[in-house]
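Bench notes, afternoon.
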Amino acid sequence: MKASLRSQVGGWLASRNGLVSNTVYRFHSWSAAQRALVRTVFERHN
């Protein structure tokens, strides 16, 4: 995974938008289960 994408996903997992502004993500409310799944897959491969 490219470093920039890794950074975006890491930011999203920290409830940020993962973009240059790195503001709090407010577009969609993800469930705890969805966040946990993304975190698990992300950590497994990074």
